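Supplementary Methods S3. Input chains for the assembly prediction are listed below.
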Amino acid sequence: MENSLIQLNRITKVYRMGGEDFTALHEINLRVEPKSFMSFVGPSGSGKTTLLNLIGGLDTPTSGDIIFCDESLGGMSPDQRASYRRENIGFVFQSYNLLPVYTVYENILFPFLLANLKESDVRDRVMSIVDQVGLIPQVSKRPSELSGGQCQRVAIARALVKEPRLVLADEPTANLDKENSYQILELMLDLNKKFDAAFVFSTHDEKVTKFVRREIGLEDGYVRWDKRRNGDGDFE
Amino acid sequence: MIRWLIKGMLRDRTRSLFPFIVVTVGVALVIVLVGFMDGVIMGMMDSTAHLDTGHLRVVNKPFYDEEHLNPMDRALGSQKITGDWLRANSDPEIVWSPRIRWGAIMDVPDERGETRSQTPVMGIALDLLSQDSLELKRLNLAESLTRGRLPNKRGEILVGYQLAQTLALELNRPVTLIGQTFDGGMATDNFTVVGFVRFGIFAMDKKMALIDLVDAQETFYLDDIVTDWLGYLPSYVSFREYDRYRSRLEFQMKTLINLHPSGWAKDDFPIVVSILDQRNIRPIAEKFLVVRKFIIGIFLFLMVVVLWNAGILNGIHRYGEMGIRLAMGETHSHLLLSLVTESFVVGLVGSVAGCVLGGACTYALQEIGLNMGDAFAQSGLMLSDVARARLSVGGFVRGVIPGLTASVLGTFIAGLAIYKRSEANLFREQEAG
Ligand SMILES: Nc1ncnc2c1ncn2[C@@H]1O[C@H](COP(=O)(O)OP(=O)(O)OP(=O)(O)O)[C@@H](O)[C@H]1O
Ligand SMILES: [Mg+2]
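Predicted structure tokens for the full assembly:
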């Protein structure tokens, strides 16, 4: 059997609010292979974001275990989870979340600074990814001087610059128009091929469906379906 | 990382401008306030020291013990040897000035030479005539004259202006001093009144007369004898150092005492007292230090509260940034550390600016002074009319420490909120944003 990048074993997430329990995810079992390009789809409230949170180590499951490359997230302290995120995960948000006072270059440099690397040692790596997302002309601009699509490119570059094993993107195209959505998806697919990184999205957006190789349907916290594209490019 | 943080701070000035202003103003205020308070208390001490006590005073113990009686026969001999020894062996920053405290009856004759009025006066004899004498400047005599001039030859006397009024003295007329000589005989000598002086201290204006040291030694038969050696420290030496200087000198003086110059009487034994041990000044000084601490404490507290709130606002302003940094795997403590680092930098820059601002104001107050003549006129304390600030390294330290502490502490308290922030909501917060 193929080695999995992430393995979810009977993951349940219960939110407690006002004394009442709400189960957002019910005993989810799932494997994500390395270099996947896949999405979670489903109506609002179905648990997509909750699932990404758990995989990304931003939140902990109520029961069940998440294994990332043979390592269980279950026993990690908050600081260990922070370092897990730092080392393995790149995040892309719906609203880009760039640091407004810094240039494109500095935003992309930031993950390296968090890892205590010197700028002079990583300048080339930063510039290379800036080139790959096509932002060389904008490299010294601030986010406020960029279009939405350009901002999302910066966010993608920032997520990928340290070459993580996994990129998690929550509704990455929700704020973009059709044209920009396609460009961003194409860019991500391209980078998925070039880098050794799996991409996992959550989305409402049907456009995403055309690009992913696997789609998992969520509803009320249950996995309803799990489709993979066959050799012809059709979902089975 | 620090460079990265500073870059961010410079670009987004709104987030550091307010804390910067608070620190700058706070530090400046503390420096000015401390400088002004130091100036007032040190000014008060200095006026007392200049006229009366010195910062340090070497005095014969038998004289000191009965000082209220002005026992001139207990004065300390061998002036020259003692003076030379002090100048050669004490701390070089101490400037020594020999004085004689004398008491006498002042007799004012009329045209025919018969007594018109008489009163006891207390006097100080000091070097008024030498070219290089520092005493005129020290007592600010030229500016204190209400009428007349400074003595320029032997046999001239300056009189407190109220004393002059009481005795209806006229300038350039003779007065006779009648007192006791060193060996117990009667001393009488004529002096010409050349000036009236306003010391600014009621008791002195009413009772004091000044004559030259050599005149006094002749009048009272005090050959090579003085009652006091007053030691003056430069103004940058805080009064908190006086005790240390005193004990060091006391220790060094053992050599002189063992030497026992021939002009000393058998039981002569010079002791060292600091100004703090005289005229009840120590308790005032101690109270002053408590008040000063209290004021600095209040400023520190206020600045912490203000900067804490500024830190909270900053946290709201940068909510998104904090969120994304947490998501990217920055730990809560690292994030807090980076905020504290930023505020340390702001505190440092603000403190420097505050030092410049406060230093400039204090310097102005030191050089120009604040005329408080009316406020001080009533008090019996030896205060000069012009309150001057005192600029000192200590004053800067007292400003910078609360400035930096407040900046760091305020941010730290505000930053603790970061720990309440759970990463679990980041994606959802981002959607809402
Ligand atoms: N912190 C929370 N406390 C309580 N309930 C929560 C919390 N977060 C999510 N939920 C609930 O869990 C369910 C799943 O939420 P989640 O955000 O995962 O949905 P989603 O599929 O991402 O929806 P959307 O498409 O609107 O983003 C929702 O019913 C939501 O109300
Ligand atoms: Mg969602």
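The radius of gyration of chain A is 18 Å. Helices of chain A lie at 48-55, 78-88, 104-114, 119-132, 148-160, 178-194, 206-209.
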